[in-house]
From TrEMBL:
It is found in: Membrane. GO terms for cellular component: plasma membrane. The chain crosses the membrane at residues 6-24, 31-49, 55-73, 94-119, 183-203, 253-273, 285-307, 319-350, 362-381, 401-424. InterPro entries: Cit_transptr-like_dom (IPR004680), DASS-Related_Transporters (IPR051679). GO terms for biological process: transmembrane transport. It is a multi-pass membrane protein. Keywords: Membrane, Repeat, Transmembrane, Transmembrane helix, Transport. It comes from Caloramator quimbayensis. Signal peptide: none annotated. It comes from the Bacteria. This is Di-and tricarboxylate transporter. Residues 16-371 form the Citrate transporter-like domain.
């Protein structure tokens, strides 16, 4: 291991400890880590602070302003009242219904859709909850549900990656049953449901607000926008969502649509400048931008490839298929989170596992499918887009966050590995 690798790992660990102990305000530890990465020569300033010019961060910051404007509309007011009504009829039932609805909606957008989890968490952040359904009980469950389609029909991205890594490893198998691959995704989603039903008990019973309602009733701010402003806000919101969804077709220009939509709600007076500034510079934006720089610096040291080769050598050629696949799923998911490059990490580890399977005379399809899917299922560290946003909006302490995410992480990967071996016999 090189000195830059050791320094980068040490700084990353220091950042995680600061987040865990709440010694600094939320969003500050990644910025300090970026400064230290540059100070110790791990990376240059452009890379360390590249997160602030990252297209996704710019899109997210703009969308936060759009959500703040949407909060003032009658639609969100009605949505809040519906959630409160659900909560008053039973907090646990409302909790289950919320994350199931999110998983159904995820079926349309597909796994790992930035637009979808930003949209979902943005809307959830505007809701005022009662003590029967605190945000602490909802944000994590509904947030991570954004990664698990209940009807996994939109799996083309991951399916394409599976085919690509099989070809890259020189496998003779270049076709994978798409129906079976969708079933594998369904098994993962069912494992998440199983954990979420239990995880309700470990999520903190707290609201984001500093004060609790006490009598299960909240004092809601009522906005009275003129109809033309309200309809314009809806149009701006839909345009921002469309821009995020269609990014793959329109390229970088699509990332600018949420920013232009935010300018529109500022110009027509739905938000004033202070409101726009506070939302685009929210702690969650600083957190997200900062961890991108840390992840890029960590990945540039060559740590990913080194770890993969070391583990492959340690496993040897006399290892059970389950242990082989599970180990590479853990490595892929952890380093995809740490480096911020899901596809890059998958393309490093999946061919190694596939090659190992072929050397053992095993069908590598299960390994390819499971390892590719695992790349989108880290999430126990709040240093990637979705987990960082969940932790920020839910205002969880790291210990509270880990009580939910660490069991979730292992339950999902074990279920994924078992299902892969059963669906694609080796």
């Amino acid at each position: 291991m090189t000195i830059p690798m050791i320094i980068a790992l040490s700084i990353t660990l220091f950042m995680v400890i600061l987040i865990m102990t709440d010694k600094l305000p939320f969003g500050a530890p990644p910025l300090l880590a970026c400064l230290l990465m540059v100070l110790f020569g791990v990376t240059d300033i452009k890379t360390a602070f590249g997160g602030f010019s990252n297209a996704t961060v710019i899109m997210l910051a703009s969308f936060m302003a759009i959500v703040a404007a949407l909060e003032k509309t009658s639609f969100i007011g009605a949505f809040r009242r519906t959630i409160l009504k659900m909560a008053n009829h039973g907090g646990y039932k409302a909790y289950v219904l919320l994350f199931i609805i999110v998983m159904l909606a995820c079926s349309i957008f597909g796994t790992g859709s930035t637009a979808f989890y930003v949209l979902t968490l943005g809307i959830l952040s505007t809701i005022q909850y009662t003590d029967k359904l605190p945000r602490g009980k909802v944000i994590a469950a509904a947030g991570f549900a954004c990664n698990h389609p209940l009807i996994p029909v939109n799996v083309t991205l991951q399916y394409g990656v599976v085919i690509a890594v099989l070809e890259a490893a020189g496998s003779a198998i270049t076709k994978v049953n798409l129906v079976k691959f969708s079933i594998l995704n369904l098994m993962l989603s069912l494992a998440y449901i199983a954990w979420a039903l239990i995880g309700y008990k470990v999520l903190p019973n707290k609201n984001v607000e500093d004060t609790k309602s006490g009598n299960d009733k909240v004092q809601e701010t009522v906005y009275d926008l003129p109809k033309w402003k309200e309809y314009t806000t809806y149009a701006a919101f839909l345009a921002a969502v469309a821009g995020m969804i269609l990014q793959s077709k329109f390229g970088n220009a699509a990332y600018m649509i949420p920013g232009l939509a935010a300018c529109l709600v500022l110009v027509i007076g739905v938000l004033n400048f202070n409101e726009v500034r506070n939302n685009i510079g929210a702690p969650i934006i600083l957190m997200t931008a900062g961890v991108i720089g840390v992840a890029d610096a960590l990945g540039s040291t060559g740590l990913t490839a080194l770890v993969g080769k070391t583990v492959a050598n340690m496993l040897g050629t006399n290892v059970s298929p389950f242990i082989l696949i599970f180990t590479f799923c853990v490595l892929t998911s952890v380093l995809a989170t740490l480096t911020g490059s899901t596809l890059g990490t998958v393309y490093v580890f999946a061919p190694m596992a596939i090659a190992t399977c072929m050397s053992l005379g095993l069908n590598p399809t299960a390994a390819a499918a499971a390892i590719v899917i695992s790349g989108w299922n880290g999430h126990f560290l709040p240093i990637d887009g979705m987990p960082a946003m969940v932790m920020g909006i839910g205002k969880y302490k790291l210990t509270e966050f880990w009580k939910y995410t660490i069991p979730m992480y292992f339950i999902r990967l074990i279920a994924l590995t078992v299902a892969a071996v059963l669906i694609f016999p080796m």
